[in-house]
Amino acid sequence: MDRGIFLGGIPGTTSRRGFLRACAIATAAMGLPMEMVSKVAEAAKDPERPRVIWLHFQECTGCTMSLLEASHPDIASLILDLISLDYQETLMVAAGEQAEENLHKAIEEGNYILVVEGGIPLKDDGVYCKVAGKTAIESLKKAAEKAIAIIAIGTCSAYGGIQAAKPNPTGAVGVQDIIKDKPIINVPGCPPNPHNFLSTILYYLTFKKLPPTDRWGRPLFAYGRKIHDHCERRPHFDEGRFVEQFGDIGHQLGYCLYKVGCKGPETYSNCPVIRFNDVEVWPVSVGNGCYGCTEPNFWDTMTPFHDRLPNIEIPGAGIQASATEFGKAALGVTAAAIAIHAGIGVAKRLATGSKSEE
After folding, report:
1. Using one digit for the tens of pLDDT, what is the confidence trace for 313-327?
2. Three-state SS at 316
3. Is-contact 233 286, C-beta < 8 A?
4. CA–CA distance from 216 to each of 157, 251, 264 (Å)?
5. Shortest CA distance to 182 belongs to which of 268, 103, 116?
6. Whole-number pLDDT of residue 7
7. Model pTM?
8. DSSP class per residue in 197-232
9. What are the angstrom distances between the C-alpha of 166 and each of 38, 103, 161, 242, 262?
């Protein structure tokens, strides 16, 4: 389907510098050596772009918006250049019967990746979310039939999200609770970092398969370690220096946020490494604790958000491990961040072409 029916430009709008930078960051995020940047970039330039159908259900459209915000112009453009977006309600110009016709045609042609954004309600035969007279569960099952793989973007489509919070009045669930016969990968977050979605797409293009996942269906390269393991405030935790209440002297000095509710010790994500908005920030860096939004049922298990997690051992008087053990831990904590910065450095070196190439 002609990309021209979508908002956001035409293929080839990403600058060479932006393209290489995004490929390098994605390569590092996937845990691949920098020598793989060229292979990832080559796969990304394959003219045989995978077809994508993108469905919206119970959600706020925040996952789509996180890809489109001005802070991510190269990410948004690159993703839209990498794929042939056959249907996406937020981006396409078509509406009403024309939009439905586009969807039916795309499904009949088959051989596409299905991206799902939002939870799916099951209670009362799914009447709480309907598009064009069809319930979300009907639309999902129909679109999944000829999909080669499914990517659930955001915590809502992965695990039900806020809609599934107790008492879950609509019976909302994630894609994996309904579709059992297709490969599914979850890219959770509220919203997820755009780099993680981009890296999942690039992994698929490079290796012709979905990346390895953890027990919750999340790509290990992005969700394989706890936030606590590579948080920049971790040294304060290890030394017993905590914010006791927002605005106190510890808060001003950047101490650990565990006591005011940070869920980093129980949350798996690469937020401290990838960060958001291309301006090197994430919630903890600006003084608010992690809410654990990449975890299943986080609206129930992580609330109240500003209460501390139970059963987390707090160092009593400084580091308890030996100097050797601490050194190993410190190296592990910083390795991912070093890889990302190395990736950016490689990208800058690769992107030294003339302005005519941008």
Report:
1. 887 654 444 333 444
2. coil
3. no
4. 13, 34, 17
5. 116
6. 41
7. 0.82
8. HHHHHHHHHHHSSPPPB-TTS-BHHHHSSBGGGG-T
9. 47, 33, 11, 31, 21
